[in-house]
Amino acid sequence: MPGVTLEDKDRKLEGYEFFRNVLGSPKHIVAPMVDQSELAWRKLSRRYGAQLVYTPMINAKMYAEGARKPFREQNFDTVHGEEGGPEDRPLIVQFCANNPDHLLKSARLLEPFCDAVDINLGCPQDIARRGRYGSFLQDEWDLIYTLINTLHKNLSIPVTAKFRVFPTVEKTVEYAKMLERAGAQMLTCHGRTREQRGHRSGVADWEKIRAVKEAVSVPVVANGNLLFYSDVARCLAATGADAVMSAEGNLYNPALFQPAPVASASASAADGDGDGDGYLAGRHPRNTHVALEYLGIVKAQRTLTTPSAVKGHLFKLLRPALARYTDIRERLGRVRIERAERDKEGGGTAWDKYEEIVRELDERLEGDIDAASGKSLEELSPVDPATGFPVLPHWLLQPYIRPLPAEPDAAKPPAQNEKSGVEVVECPVTVEDSASRGAKRAISEERPAAPRSDGAESVSESKRAKLTEEASSGSSPRTHVDAIAT
Ligand SMILES: Cc1cc2nc3c(=O)[nH]c(=O)nc-3n(C[C@H](O)[C@H](O)[C@H](O)COP(=O)(O)O)c2cc1C
Q1: Where does the secretion signal sit in this chain (predicted)?
Q2: Containing domain of residue 37, as a range?
C-alpha cells in the first residue's frame, strides 16, 4: 500500500488521507465494467498506466446468499489468491444493492481483498429498474443513505459511491452532499443523467461534475467523455476533479492514460507514436500486440477468465483491423470454448484458438505497415468529417467514435466539446452496465438497428433468450446474467 504507516494500519483512513495513503493519489482510474474489468484486464490496464481499477459490479444479494455455488467464485475468486492479491491493488470492489444486510454481508466477505467497497448508483438499464438498484435508487435517498452509512459504520475499509448526475446542477449537488454525509469517502460522478443511455447517450456534462467537486470535501472522480489522451488533462482542468475514470475509452485503448513515448521528430506510424500535442499525443500501440499480451495474461494466471470477457476484449481491441479483414472477424466470432476446456487451470489450451487467429491477423497488418512505410502517423490519420476526430491506421488501438444521434436532446454538444455533432463514445450495447448483455429485451431496446461490432454482442438473439431464461429459472450457465437476474 502506498504510504501507509504502522499508525495508519490501526485506524480507518478517510477522504483525502485514504485517497493519498491507501490509493496512492491515483489520477487514472479504470471503471467498473461487467464482464470487462476482470482480473486479466485489470492487470493489462495497470501495465498501461491505470493507477486504480474497479471490479465489475457484483450483485450483493446473490453474493451474500451464495446460493448457487459457482456464483461467488465467478464474481471474485478468493481461492487462487490472485484477485485482490499484491498484483491486483489498489482495487475497489463494486456492488449493486438495495438491502443493507445483503450489502454488508457481501462487503465483509470481500473487505480483506480490496481497498474500498463501492456502491453502484449509476446503472440506468431496465434490468436495474426491475432489480431496483443502480440509478433507480436515485429517488430513494433514505435507502441510499442507509446503504452507505451501514458500510461506513461497520466495515474496516472505506465505502465509496459512483453515481449519475440529475438534470439540474442543484439537485446533483444536493445529492452528492447527501452521499458524502452518509459516509462515502470518495465520489465518482458520471456526467450523464439516468435518461442518457443507449442511443440517447450523448455526452457527459463536465460542468455538473465541477459543481460536485466544489461542493464536497471528499475526493471526486470525473467519469465520461474520455476518448484520447489529451481528454484526460482537459477533463481534469474542466472539472477540477482529483482523478478521471474511463470505461469505453480504456476498452478500445488500454494505453489511453499514457503519452506517446517519443516526440514528433521520430514519430512512428507503426507504433502509433504521434506528435507532442493534439489528439495524437497519446500512446496508440499496435492492436494485435496488445491483444496477444492480454491473452498471455489470461493464460498465465490461475484465475479463470470467462470466454465472453475474452471475446469482448478481442473484438474491441482489434475493431479497426477486423473491419478490414472481415474473414478473420468471422473466424473470431465462431470460436467456441467448451466448459471442460476453460475450466482447466488458466484455461488450458482453450485460448490458443484465439491466439492463432490474432497471430494471422498480425501478419497481415505487418504487410500493411510495410506498405505505409515512410509516412507519418499524421499523414495516415485523416479526420473523419462525420465526427471531426482523426481515424488512425487500422493496426493501432483507437477510440470507437460514433456520430451523434439526430435527436435534438442527445445531439446538443456540451460546452467543453468544441466538435458539434459528435457523440463521445457510448457503450456498443449499453452505457452504464453491460450487465444487460444476455438480457434480450434490454439489448433490443437499446440499439434496435445497429450492427454489432464486438464479440460480446456476437451471441445470437436465440442464445441471449436462452441465457435470460436460464438465469431467471436459476440454472444459469457461467455468465454475468447471474449478476443481473434479480
Ligand atoms: C462494458 C461496460 C460495462 C459497464 N459495467 C459497469 C458496472 O459494472 N458498474 C458501473 O458502475 N458502471 C458500469 N459501466 C459504466 C461505466 O463504468 C461508465 O460509468 C460509463 O461507461 C461512462 O464512462 P465512459 O464514457 O468512459 O465509457 C459499464 C460500462 C461499459 C462500457
Answers
A1: none
A2: 6-256
Mutate to test the pocket of ligand 1, among 33, 94, 205, 400 (most ligand atoms within 8 A of CB): 33
DSSP string across 407-460:
-HHHHPPPTT--STTEE----SS-SS-GGGTT-HHHHHHH-SSPPP-SGGG-S-
Q: Omega before 56 cis (within 30°)?
A: no
What is the tally of structural domains in the chain? 2
In Å, how far from its chain's centre is CA 80?
24
Q: Is the CB of 248 under 6 A from ligand 1?
A: yes
Model pLDDT for residues 286-330, shown as the tens digit of each residue: 999 999 999 999 999 999 999 999 999 999 999 999 999 999 999
Q: Is the beta carbon of 426 within 6 A of some atom in ligand 1? A: no
Q: Tell me the pTM.
A: 0.85
Distance 127 CA to ligand 1 centre (A): 15
- 238 and 275 housed in the same domain: no
- Which of 332, 363, 398 is the last residue in one of the domains? 398
* Residue 246 CB–ligand 1 contact under 6 Å: yes
| 189 noted as active-site residue | no
Q: Are 164 and 308 found together in one domain?
A: no
Q: What are phi and psi of 289, to 5 degrees?
A: -65, -40
Ligand 1 in contact with 120 (CB < 6 A)? yes
Pairwise pLDDT comparison (113 vs 278), residue with the higher score: 113
pLDDT reported for residue 261: 80
